[in-house]
Protein backbone atom coordinates (compact mmCIF):
# COMPACT_ATOMS: atom_id res chain seq x y z
CA UNK A 1 0.00 0.00 0.00
CA UNK A 2 1.31 3.46 -0.93
CA UNK A 3 1.91 6.25 1.55
CA UNK A 4 -1.26 8.14 0.70
CA UNK A 5 -2.01 10.88 3.20
CA UNK A 6 -5.70 10.53 3.99
CA UNK A 7 -6.69 12.98 6.68
CA UNK A 8 -9.66 12.95 9.00
CA UNK A 9 -10.25 16.70 8.79
CA UNK A 10 -11.53 18.71 11.73
CA UNK A 11 -14.75 20.66 11.57
CA UNK A 12 -14.33 24.40 11.81
CA UNK A 13 -15.92 26.77 14.30
CA UNK A 14 -15.73 24.63 17.46
CA UNK A 15 -12.92 24.59 20.08
CA UNK A 16 -12.58 20.78 20.05
CA UNK A 17 -12.07 18.07 17.47
CA UNK A 18 -15.05 16.67 15.65
CA UNK A 19 -14.73 15.35 12.10
CA UNK A 20 -15.74 17.63 9.26
CA UNK A 21 -18.96 16.43 7.70
CA UNK A 22 -18.07 16.20 4.01
CA UNK A 23 -20.62 15.63 2.63
CA UNK A 24 -23.06 16.53 5.44
CA UNK A 25 -25.29 13.90 6.98
CA UNK A 26 -28.60 13.89 5.16
CA UNK A 27 -26.99 14.38 1.73
CA UNK A 28 -28.18 11.83 -0.88
CA UNK A 29 -25.48 9.81 -2.62
CA UNK A 30 -27.21 10.21 -5.97
CA UNK A 31 -28.80 13.63 -6.24
CA UNK A 32 -30.30 13.05 -9.68
CA UNK A 33 -32.65 10.33 -8.46
CA UNK A 34 -33.18 11.64 -4.93
CA UNK A 35 -36.69 12.63 -3.80
CA UNK A 36 -37.29 16.38 -3.58
CA UNK A 37 -37.21 16.20 0.21
CA UNK A 38 -33.54 15.22 0.07
CA UNK A 39 -32.47 17.79 -2.50
CA UNK A 40 -30.69 21.01 -1.53
CA UNK A 41 -32.66 24.23 -1.30
CA UNK A 42 -31.30 27.73 -1.65
CA UNK A 43 -33.48 30.67 -0.67
CA UNK A 44 -32.56 34.27 0.12
CA UNK A 45 -28.86 33.49 0.49
CA UNK A 46 -29.29 30.47 2.78
CA UNK A 47 -28.65 27.01 1.35
CA UNK A 48 -29.93 23.86 3.07
CA UNK A 49 -28.45 20.48 2.17
CA UNK A 50 -31.96 19.00 2.31
CA UNK A 51 -35.49 20.07 3.19
CA UNK A 52 -35.83 18.46 6.59
CA UNK A 53 -36.57 21.21 9.10
CA UNK A 54 -36.70 20.69 12.87
CA UNK A 55 -39.51 22.89 14.14
CA UNK A 56 -39.16 25.13 17.21
CA UNK A 57 -40.33 23.04 20.17
CA UNK A 58 -40.48 24.32 23.75
CA UNK A 59 -38.54 22.22 26.24
CA UNK A 60 -39.17 24.27 29.42
CA UNK A 61 -35.55 23.74 30.47
CA UNK A 62 -33.83 27.16 30.41
CA UNK A 63 -32.46 29.06 33.41
CA UNK A 64 -33.46 32.74 33.44
CA UNK A 65 -33.78 32.57 29.67
CA UNK A 66 -30.28 31.09 29.24
CA UNK A 67 -29.89 27.80 27.38
CA UNK A 68 -27.79 25.04 28.96
CA UNK A 69 -25.87 21.88 28.06
CA UNK A 70 -29.24 20.18 27.79
CA UNK A 71 -30.13 22.33 24.80
CA UNK A 72 -26.73 21.77 23.18
CA UNK A 73 -27.30 18.01 23.31
CA UNK A 74 -30.99 18.21 22.46
CA UNK A 75 -30.57 20.45 19.41
CA UNK A 76 -27.16 19.12 18.42
CA UNK A 77 -28.54 15.63 17.89
CA UNK A 78 -30.74 16.88 15.06
CA UNK A 79 -27.72 18.35 13.30
CA UNK A 80 -25.87 15.05 13.76
CA UNK A 81 -28.79 13.20 12.20
CA UNK A 82 -28.73 15.37 9.09
CA UNK A 83 -31.60 17.87 9.31
CA UNK A 84 -31.10 20.75 6.89
CA UNK A 85 -32.32 23.41 9.33
CA UNK A 86 -32.61 23.22 13.12
CA UNK A 87 -34.80 25.67 15.03
CA UNK A 88 -34.27 26.78 18.60
CA UNK A 89 -37.55 26.91 20.49
CA UNK A 90 -39.76 29.97 21.01
CA UNK A 91 -37.39 32.55 22.50
CA UNK A 92 -38.84 35.50 24.38
CA UNK A 93 -37.88 39.09 23.54
CA UNK A 94 -38.47 40.17 27.16
CA UNK A 95 -38.85 38.27 30.48
CA UNK A 96 -42.64 38.68 30.66
CA UNK A 97 -42.89 37.36 27.11
CA UNK A 98 -42.02 33.82 28.16
CA UNK A 99 -44.68 31.13 28.19
CA UNK A 100 -43.18 29.64 31.33
CA UNK A 101 -40.38 30.63 33.75
CA UNK A 102 -38.15 28.01 32.09
CA UNK A 103 -38.45 29.33 28.52
CA UNK A 104 -35.60 30.47 26.31
CA UNK A 105 -34.90 34.21 26.12
CA UNK A 106 -32.86 36.72 24.13
CA UNK A 107 -33.58 39.98 25.94
CA UNK A 108 -30.04 40.48 27.26
CA UNK A 109 -26.53 40.04 25.89
CA UNK A 110 -25.53 37.30 28.34
CA UNK A 111 -27.99 34.99 26.59
CA UNK A 112 -25.99 35.20 23.35
CA UNK A 113 -23.11 33.06 24.65
CA UNK A 114 -24.99 29.77 25.27
CA UNK A 115 -26.84 30.21 21.98
CA UNK A 116 -23.54 30.71 20.14
CA UNK A 117 -22.30 27.36 21.48
CA UNK A 118 -25.32 25.73 19.89
CA UNK A 119 -25.08 27.48 16.51
CA UNK A 120 -21.34 26.75 16.37
CA UNK A 121 -21.98 23.04 16.82
CA UNK A 122 -24.85 23.01 14.33
CA UNK A 123 -22.63 24.75 11.78
CA UNK A 124 -19.81 22.27 12.45
CA UNK A 125 -22.14 19.60 11.09
CA UNK A 126 -22.78 21.62 7.91
CA UNK A 127 -26.33 22.34 9.06
CA UNK A 128 -28.10 25.71 9.32
CA UNK A 129 -29.39 27.19 12.58
CA UNK A 130 -32.66 29.06 13.07
CA UNK A 131 -34.43 30.70 16.00
CA UNK A 132 -38.04 31.65 16.67
CA UNK A 133 -38.47 35.00 18.45
CA UNK A 134 -41.67 35.20 20.43
CA UNK A 135 -43.81 36.92 23.04
CA UNK A 136 -46.55 34.96 24.82
CA UNK A 137 -48.74 37.97 25.65
CA UNK A 138 -51.77 36.89 27.67
CA UNK A 139 -50.65 33.23 27.53
CA UNK A 140 -47.55 34.00 29.62
CA UNK A 141 -46.57 32.95 33.15
CA UNK A 142 -47.79 29.36 32.97
CA UNK A 143 -46.15 26.16 34.17
CA UNK A 144 -44.85 23.40 31.90
CA UNK A 145 -47.81 21.56 30.35
CA UNK A 146 -47.03 18.14 31.80
CA UNK A 147 -47.03 19.29 35.43
CA UNK A 148 -50.02 17.90 37.29
CA UNK A 149 -50.63 15.23 34.68
CA UNK A 150 -52.68 17.44 32.38
CA UNK A 151 -52.09 19.16 29.05
CA UNK A 152 -54.05 22.16 30.32
CA UNK A 153 -51.91 25.10 31.36
CA UNK A 154 -51.82 26.33 34.94
CA UNK A 155 -50.76 29.75 36.15
CA UNK A 156 -47.16 30.05 37.38
CA UNK A 157 -47.22 32.01 40.64
CA UNK A 158 -44.48 34.30 41.95
CA UNK A 159 -43.36 31.51 44.29
CA UNK A 160 -42.30 29.39 41.29
CA UNK A 161 -40.81 32.24 39.28
CA UNK A 162 -43.95 33.41 37.50
CA UNK A 163 -45.19 36.95 36.91
CA UNK A 164 -48.99 36.66 37.21
CA UNK A 165 -49.35 40.39 37.94
CA UNK A 166 -47.29 41.51 34.94
CA UNK A 167 -48.95 39.77 32.00
CA UNK A 168 -49.61 42.02 28.99
CA UNK A 169 -51.93 41.90 25.98
CA UNK A 170 -53.76 44.23 23.56
CA UNK A 171 -56.79 44.09 25.87
CA UNK A 172 -57.34 43.07 29.49
CA UNK A 173 -58.96 39.75 28.58
CA UNK A 174 -57.58 36.46 29.99
CA UNK A 175 -57.01 33.59 27.58
CA UNK A 176 -58.96 31.17 29.78
CA UNK A 177 -60.28 30.83 33.31
CA UNK A 178 -57.03 29.42 34.72
CA UNK A 179 -54.83 32.05 33.07
CA UNK A 180 -53.84 35.41 34.49
CA UNK A 181 -55.68 38.59 33.53
CA UNK A 182 -53.33 40.79 31.48
CA UNK A 183 -53.12 44.53 31.63
CA UNK A 184 -53.79 46.40 28.40
CA UNK A 185 -50.62 47.55 26.69
CA UNK A 186 -50.20 51.29 26.47
CA UNK A 187 -49.13 53.09 23.32
CA UNK A 188 -45.67 53.64 24.76
CA UNK A 189 -45.32 50.00 25.80
CA UNK A 190 -46.15 48.86 22.28
CA UNK A 191 -43.44 51.10 20.85
CA UNK A 192 -40.95 49.68 23.33
CA UNK A 193 -41.96 46.14 22.40
CA UNK A 194 -41.23 46.76 18.72
CA UNK A 195 -37.76 47.90 19.76
CA UNK A 196 -37.30 44.78 21.88
CA UNK A 197 -38.04 42.58 18.87
CA UNK A 198 -35.39 44.43 16.90
CA UNK A 199 -32.85 44.19 19.73
CA UNK A 200 -33.46 40.45 20.09
CA UNK A 201 -33.03 39.94 16.35
CA UNK A 202 -29.67 41.71 16.45
CA UNK A 203 -28.59 39.45 19.31
CA UNK A 204 -29.71 36.44 17.25
CA UNK A 205 -27.38 37.49 14.43
CA UNK A 206 -24.53 37.89 16.93
CA UNK A 207 -25.32 34.37 18.15
CA UNK A 208 -24.77 33.05 14.64
CA UNK A 209 -28.26 32.19 13.44
CA UNK A 210 -28.86 31.83 9.71
CA UNK A 211 -32.64 32.25 9.87
CA UNK A 212 -34.89 34.23 12.22
CA UNK A 213 -38.60 33.53 12.55
CA UNK A 214 -41.09 35.90 14.17
CA UNK A 215 -43.76 33.92 16.02
CA UNK A 216 -47.09 35.47 15.06
CA UNK A 217 -49.43 32.52 15.52
CA UNK A 218 -51.03 30.16 18.03
CA UNK A 219 -52.72 32.88 20.07
CA UNK A 220 -49.54 34.56 21.30
CA UNK A 221 -48.98 38.32 21.47
CA UNK A 222 -48.71 39.28 17.79
CA UNK A 223 -51.63 37.00 16.97
CA UNK A 224 -53.60 38.62 19.81
CA UNK A 225 -53.24 42.00 18.09
CA UNK A 226 -54.94 40.58 15.00
CA UNK A 227 -57.91 38.85 16.61
CA UNK A 228 -61.13 40.64 17.61
CA UNK A 229 -61.43 38.08 20.41
CA UNK A 230 -58.30 39.33 22.13
CA UNK A 231 -58.02 42.91 20.82
CA UNK A 232 -61.13 44.91 21.69
CA UNK A 233 -59.50 48.30 22.12
CA UNK A 234 -61.68 51.18 20.91
CA UNK A 235 -59.17 53.94 21.47
CA UNK A 236 -58.50 55.42 18.03
CA UNK A 237 -54.94 56.46 18.79
CA UNK A 238 -54.09 53.06 20.23
CA UNK A 239 -55.60 51.24 17.27
CA UNK A 240 -53.50 53.37 14.95
CA UNK A 241 -50.35 52.43 16.84
CA UNK A 242 -51.31 48.76 16.85
CA UNK A 243 -51.80 48.72 13.10
CA UNK A 244 -48.58 50.66 12.59
CA UNK A 245 -46.68 48.34 14.90
CA UNK A 246 -48.00 45.22 13.18
CA UNK A 247 -47.08 46.59 9.78
CA UNK A 248 -43.64 47.34 11.13
CA UNK A 249 -43.34 43.79 12.39
CA UNK A 250 -44.54 42.42 9.05
CA UNK A 251 -41.74 44.43 7.49
CA UNK A 252 -39.41 43.39 10.25
CA UNK A 253 -36.60 42.67 7.83
CA UNK A 254 -36.61 46.29 6.70
CA UNK A 255 -36.52 47.57 10.28
CA UNK A 256 -33.74 45.13 11.04
CA UNK A 257 -31.70 46.29 8.05
CA UNK A 258 -31.54 49.77 9.55
CA UNK A 259 -29.53 48.29 12.41
CA UNK A 260 -27.30 46.06 10.25
CA UNK A 261 -25.12 46.58 7.16
CA UNK A 262 -26.55 46.06 3.71
CA UNK A 263 -26.68 42.40 2.71
CA UNK A 264 -28.10 41.34 6.09
CA UNK A 265 -30.97 39.50 4.48
CA UNK A 266 -34.56 40.04 3.45
CA UNK A 267 -37.97 39.31 4.83
CA UNK A 268 -39.21 35.84 4.06
CA UNK A 269 -42.96 35.66 4.75
CA UNK A 270 -44.88 32.44 5.13
CA UNK A 271 -48.42 31.46 6.05
CA UNK A 272 -49.99 33.64 3.33
CA UNK A 273 -52.17 30.98 1.67
CA UNK A 274 -49.19 28.67 1.88
CA UNK A 275 -45.58 29.55 1.30
CA UNK A 276 -44.49 32.11 -1.28
CA UNK A 277 -41.38 31.75 -3.42
CA UNK A 278 -40.44 28.40 -1.91
CA UNK A 279 -41.25 25.78 -4.56
CA UNK A 280 -40.91 22.19 -3.49
CA UNK A 281 -41.30 22.67 0.27
CA UNK A 282 -44.25 21.24 2.11
CA UNK A 283 -46.31 24.08 3.56
CA UNK A 284 -46.27 22.19 6.85
CA UNK A 285 -42.55 22.85 7.17
CA UNK A 286 -42.54 26.61 7.58
CA UNK A 287 -46.20 27.61 7.81
CA UNK A 288 -48.03 27.33 11.09
CA UNK A 289 -51.63 27.47 9.88
CA UNK A 290 -53.09 28.29 6.50
CA UNK A 291 -54.96 31.44 7.46
CA UNK A 292 -54.38 35.18 7.65
CA UNK A 293 -54.60 35.27 11.42
CA UNK A 294 -51.97 32.56 11.90
CA UNK A 295 -48.64 33.32 10.32
CA UNK A 296 -44.94 33.20 10.89
CA UNK A 297 -42.57 35.77 9.41
CA UNK A 298 -39.11 34.59 8.51
CA UNK A 299 -36.04 36.23 7.08
CA UNK A 300 -32.50 35.08 6.46
CA UNK A 301 -29.46 36.64 8.08
CA UNK A 302 -27.00 35.55 5.42
CA UNK A 303 -23.80 37.61 5.27
CA UNK A 304 -24.96 39.66 8.26
CA UNK A 305 -22.85 41.24 10.95
CA UNK A 306 -24.68 42.95 13.77
CA UNK A 307 -23.68 46.44 14.69
UniProtKB/TrEMBL annotation:
Q: What Pfam families does this protein map onto?
A: Oxidored_FMN
List residues of the NADH:flavin oxidoreductase/NADH oxidase N-terminal domain: 37-234
Q: Where is this region: Disordered?
A: 10-33
Taxonomy, superkingdom: Eukaryota
Task: Return one GO MF term.
Answer: NADPH dehydrogenase activity
Q: What is the recorded name of this protein?
A: Oxidoreductase
Q: Origin organism of this chain?
A: Fusarium oxysporum f. sp. lycopersici (strain 4287 / CBS 123668 / FGSC 9935 / NRRL 34936)
Amino acid sequence: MGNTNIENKAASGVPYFTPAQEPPAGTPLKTDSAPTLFKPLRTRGVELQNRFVVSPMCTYSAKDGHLTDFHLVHLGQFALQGAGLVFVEATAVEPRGRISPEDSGLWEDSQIVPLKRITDFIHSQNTKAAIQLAHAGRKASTVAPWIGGTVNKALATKEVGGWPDDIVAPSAIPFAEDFGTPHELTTEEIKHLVQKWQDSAIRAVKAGFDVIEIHAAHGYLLHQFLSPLSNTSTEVALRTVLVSSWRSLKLFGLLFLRRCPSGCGSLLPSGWNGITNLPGISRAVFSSQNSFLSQELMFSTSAAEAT
